[in-house]
């Protein structure tokens, strides 16, 4: 049952979501163009803009290279080789995602230099991360899981007949990997690389702590320190242009990719690669990665945690944790509620309006958080000043920014809940709303929970939106980690960093566990159920 027109009850909230995403960005453009012509020329043609663009692109491209060099070998080891236990390899590839970049930066800074964790425990003064190389290292360690998950899934589902055919034609294992496996991984790599590129383009916390100037760092500096909001708006527009170019490049590279098999054939198991003498080298790689991405950050947090003896810090931690969990819970519910109409329209409806509605909502997620927050600041001050720096505006920002993140799992669930079940319910006397609430929603309940968990985790770690839009006195875990790290108060930041890392790890493991469960098998509703 594919509808040509989306139902009005779902179309209205979907259009409101799209309006909420687009209007602040449109006003950001108006604000940027509202300056005098002489001021505009001076702003647009500043030499600093070229430097910021070069730094931003260099860091983005370099991070894509380094994350590939980390994620691809680890994914291959976990998916294709006899290296055991595989659960440990999966945890190494996934758990760094639970540690926000600014927490990783805090841990690396606190571990290095005179008086750092490494110096205190070993007497060795390890040089502190800084500049381009520091930002590159930290972003690599805590964003490579985006690529690992995509590559691992692709390697596990590749048809082994492709590699077998290449070997029968005389190709060596290395040639087979280069000519057959790598091209097959291209869609998975592009999907993960897009997420990493968007993350790097929107990051300001890591680059600020590393003292590496990029567009995002300059936006935050201009808005909070220099109070030059016109220049900040132009920087945000420049960042949006870079992001848009990245999205267009990814779409162009994905165009024309058709890797599906013509005939499904019989299911065959993937051949396990025996490492042999390469096993110690593989374990050395995994151990080094685990140490850098997990042991050093968590060990550093634990070291500084025992130095925090102020009793008021723990009371403040409880208050910040309560605020963070409360905001994340509300945002998860509102975002999932708005994501369902978008996912339903995208999977069940046809036509330009349906395509526009779904794709426009993704603009909020593709927009770097700092630029999106700045747009909401300008828009709220102009249209509804009492809304500025209030809790509802913060929840609205979380919802509009992360709604696209929640659409994916719901749409996947809708793809397994065949429309014929709704059709059957209608034939048994149910209205469209009754069929939706009694048949479809129960079937996709696991997908709704996964979407809510994704948003909950993202909101818990979110920093730029919180810094610019949170009410005065509203403390969260992310905000306090950032504030104390900026002041080099590593012991004071440790409780908040640990709470963030543990919360993120618990949610990440929960999401992975639910995603491994088989989807419920759809059943035809009886007359009583319908």
UniProtKB/TrEMBL annotation:
<feature type="transmembrane region" description="Helical">
    <location>
        <begin position="490"/>
        <end position="512"/>
    </location>
</feature>
<keyword id="KW-0472">Membrane</keyword>
<feature type="domain" description="ABC transmembrane type-1">
    <location>
        <begin position="53"/>
        <end position="252"/>
    </location>
</feature>
<keyword id="KW-0813">Transport</keyword>
<dbReference type="Pfam" id="PF00528">
    <property type="entry name" value="BPD_transp_1"/>
</dbReference>
<protein>
    <submittedName>
        <fullName>ABC transporter permease</fullName>
    </submittedName>
</protein>
<feature type="transmembrane region" description="Helical">
    <location>
        <begin position="230"/>
        <end position="249"/>
    </location>
</feature>
<feature type="transmembrane region" description="Helical">
    <location>
        <begin position="359"/>
        <end position="381"/>
    </location>
</feature>
<feature type="domain" description="ABC transmembrane type-1">
    <location>
        <begin position="321"/>
        <end position="511"/>
    </location>
</feature>
<feature type="transmembrane region" description="Helical">
    <location>
        <begin position="281"/>
        <end position="305"/>
    </location>
</feature>
<keyword id="KW-0997">Cell inner membrane</keyword>
<feature type="transmembrane region" description="Helical">
    <location>
        <begin position="448"/>
        <end position="470"/>
    </location>
</feature>
<feature type="transmembrane region" description="Helical">
    <location>
        <begin position="58"/>
        <end position="77"/>
    </location>
</feature>
<feature type="transmembrane region" description="Helical">
    <location>
        <begin position="131"/>
        <end position="149"/>
    </location>
</feature>
<feature type="transmembrane region" description="Helical">
    <location>
        <begin position="387"/>
        <end position="404"/>
    </location>
</feature>
<dbReference type="InterPro" id="IPR000515">
    <property type="entry name" value="MetI-like"/>
</dbReference>
<dbReference type="InterPro" id="IPR035906">
    <property type="entry name" value="MetI-like_sf"/>
</dbReference>
<feature type="transmembrane region" description="Helical">
    <location>
        <begin position="325"/>
        <end position="347"/>
    </location>
</feature>
<keyword id="KW-1133">Transmembrane helix</keyword>
<feature type="transmembrane region" description="Helical">
    <location>
        <begin position="89"/>
        <end position="111"/>
    </location>
</feature>
<keyword id="KW-0812">Transmembrane</keyword>
<keyword id="KW-1003">Cell membrane</keyword>
<comment type="similarity">
    <text>Belongs to the binding-protein-dependent transport system permease family.</text>
</comment>
<feature type="transmembrane region" description="Helical">
    <location>
        <begin position="188"/>
        <end position="210"/>
    </location>
</feature>
């Amino acid at each position: 049952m594919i509808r040509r027109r989306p139902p009005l009850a779902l179309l209205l909230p979907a259009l409101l979501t799209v309006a909420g995403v687009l209007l602040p960005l449109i006003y950001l453009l108006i604000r940027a163009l509202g300056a005098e012509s002489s001021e505009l020329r001076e702003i647009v043609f500043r030499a600093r803009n070229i430097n910021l663009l070069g730094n931003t692109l260099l860091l983005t491209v370099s991070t894509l290279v380094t994350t590939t060099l980390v994620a691809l070998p680890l994914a291959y080891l976990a998916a294709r080789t006899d290296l055991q236990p595989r659960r440990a390899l999966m945890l190494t590839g996934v758990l760094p995602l639970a540690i926000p970049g600014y927490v990783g930066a805090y841990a690396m800074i606190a571990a290095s230099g005179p008086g750092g964790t490494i110096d205190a425990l070993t007497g060795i003064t390890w040089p502190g991360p800084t500049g381009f190389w520091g930002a590159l290292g930290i972003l690599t360690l805590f964003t490579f899981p985006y690529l690992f998950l995509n590559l691992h899934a692709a390697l596990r589902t590749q048809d082994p007949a492709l590699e077998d055919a290449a070997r029968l034609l005389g190709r060596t294992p290395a040639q087979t990997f280069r000519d057959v496996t790598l091209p097959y991984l291209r869609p998975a790599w592009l999907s993960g690389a897009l997420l990493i590129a968007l993350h790097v383009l929107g990051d300001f916390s890591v680059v600020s702590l590393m003292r590496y100037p990029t567009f995002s760092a300059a936006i935050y500096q201009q808005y909070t320190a220099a109070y030059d909001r016109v220049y900040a708006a132009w920087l945000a527009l420049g960042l949006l242009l870079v992001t848009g170019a990245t999205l267009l490049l990814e779409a162009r590279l994905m165009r024309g990719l058709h890797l599906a098999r013509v005939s499904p054939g019989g299911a065959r198991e993937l051949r396990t690669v025996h490492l042999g003498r390469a096993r110690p080298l593989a374990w050395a790689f995994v151990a080094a990665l685990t140490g850098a991405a997990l042991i050093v950050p968590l060990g550093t947090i634990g070291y500084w945690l025992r130095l925090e003896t102020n009793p008021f810090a723990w009371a403040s931690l409880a208050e910040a944790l309560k605020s963070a969990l409360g905001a994340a819970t509300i945002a998860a519910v509102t975002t999932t509620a708005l994501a369902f109409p978008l996912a339903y329209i995208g999977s069940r409806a046809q036509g330009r309006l349906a395509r526009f509605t779904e794709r426009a909502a993704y603009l909020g997620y593709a927009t770097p958080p700092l630029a999106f927050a700045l747009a909401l600041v300008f828009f709220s001050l102009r249209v509804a000043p009492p809304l500025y720096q209030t809790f509802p505006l913060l929840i609205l920002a979380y919802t509009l920014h992360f709604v696209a993140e929640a659409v994916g799992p719901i749409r996947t669930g809708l793809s397994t809940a065949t429309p014929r079940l709704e059709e059957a319910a209608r034939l048994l006397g149910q209205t469209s709303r009754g069929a939706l609430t009694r048949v479809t929603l129960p079937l996709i309940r696991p997908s709704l929970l996964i979407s809510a968990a994704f948003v909950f985790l993202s909101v818990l770690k979110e920093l730029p939106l919180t810094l610019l839009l949170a009410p005065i006195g509203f403390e969260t875990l992310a905000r306090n980690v950032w504030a104390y790290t900026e002041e080099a108060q590593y012991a004071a930041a440790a409780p908040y960093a640990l709470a963030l890392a543990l919360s993120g790890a618990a949610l990440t493991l929960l999401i992975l566990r639910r995603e491994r469960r088989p989807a419920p098998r759809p059943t035809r509703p009886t007359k009583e159920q319908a």
